Amino acid sequence: MLNGSRLWDDLLTHAGFGDKAAGSAGDRATADWIAGELSKAGYQLETVPVPVPTFRARRCELIGQGRSLEVYPQPVVFPTSDHGVEGRLAMVHSLSDAPGAAGCIAVILLPYGRHAAIWTSAVGPLLEAVAKAGALAAIVLPFGPTGEIVGLNSYADRPFVSLPVAIGRPLDLSGYAAMASAGQPVSLYLNGEMDEGDSPTLVARMSRGDRWIVMSTPRSGFFTCSVERGTGTAGFLEIARWLPEAFPEHSLFLMNSGAHELRFAGTHAALDLAPPPDKTDVWAHLGAGLASRARTEIRGGRILEVADLNRICMVTPPLHEAARAAFAGLPGLDDPQPVLSEAGELSTIVAKGYEKAFACLGVNWSCHTRLDLPAEVSRSLLEPVIEAHRRLIELSVRSR
């Protein structure tokens, strides 16, 4: 039913646009490409502007004791002055350590995990605690499987706390420890220009019958995001091409939302444009990390040709049995679960009253890091997952 070669080609095209932070050149180029593909498939396009704060970095580093450590400015960025922020480092492992960050640059060491958002992890309370204690700035070390910088989803309209916040590489822990042990002032630089950009939400319609099928996927994300965003984008486009012929009597509404990493701002901006719940037969949301290659972690580890199990299929109750049938044989997705709050956009969609809705999402090994590249997934892992989405849409509509 689906064209696997085209599906994979779309994932590689998506990767070619590079970093896709909300409002960036890569985000806008990706939006233009998706709009073109939907237009070629016969949809009528509407663009909903989604204003977002952007940051053009000039200098982002921590300097001290003859060392320079790269840091990543956490959106929404609270920049330092060109002279940076100077202070001693205070290592923060838990809330009980927060008072010791007063007058210092806090280094927050997160417990090992696959981190993705500030408000759903331990870092939110820790950032609030060091800010309340009077820290000058904060650097988060998100320990996880890669040891690399991990971008964290946050608010769209303001910094999470009112002080400069950066993300560091956990692999650089020895450098942070040496600076902190020396007890001497160091300097944090988050220099650059703040501006207002646009991470538009694309709305595509094909008006035919009285009943609607709705499909959505987010577009923006951290770095290249080939698994996180590319898998959903490629699947979204392939299913978008299939829907018009498969359901000639249905009207179609598609949403490709911007500003995902800024608390799903692009979805909120366009959600009221969707057809009413009582006219909608199914809402299929293609979430993050639909398929990725698993990895072992023994002596450096190796990448495997089997799927990473760290993924979930969430469904509303009327779709539970159909989802179990559609995703059978796909580990991690084959046991449908209730909709989780704030796990992607689905809970926001369901709160609007859509009774038949589903979304799959995963937090892959390289999620939100620079390592999230096409080599982290394969056509053989992606194709059956997108086919299962197609199957569930079909089962949902046919069962009305």
Structural summary, described in words:
This protein is α/β, with parallel strands linked by helices. 27% of the residues lie in helices and 27% in strands. The chain has helices at 4-15, 25-40, 123-133, 173-182, 226-246, 265-270, 320-326, 346-350, 379-398; strands spanning 44-48, 51-64, 67-73, 85-87, 89-92, 105-110, 137-142, 165-168, 186-198, 201-206, 212-218, 251-257, 280-286, 293-295, 303-307, 311-315, 357-362. The strands form three sheets. It has an eight-stranded mixed sheet with strand order 4-9-2-3-8-7-6-5, with helices on both faces. A seven-stranded mixed sheet has the order 1-10-12-11-13-17-16. α1 crosses α5 (226-246) and α5 (226-246) crosses α9.
Keywords:
17 strands, 400 residues, single chain, seven-stranded mixed sheet, alpha/beta
In short:
The chain has helices at about 5-15, 25-40, 125-135, 175-180, 225-245, 265-270, 320-325, 345-350, 380-400; strands spanning about 45-50, 50-65, 65-75, 85, 90, 105-110, 135-140, 165-170, 185-200, 200-205, 210-220, 250-255, 280-285, 295, 305, 310-315, 355-360. The protein is of the alpha/beta class.
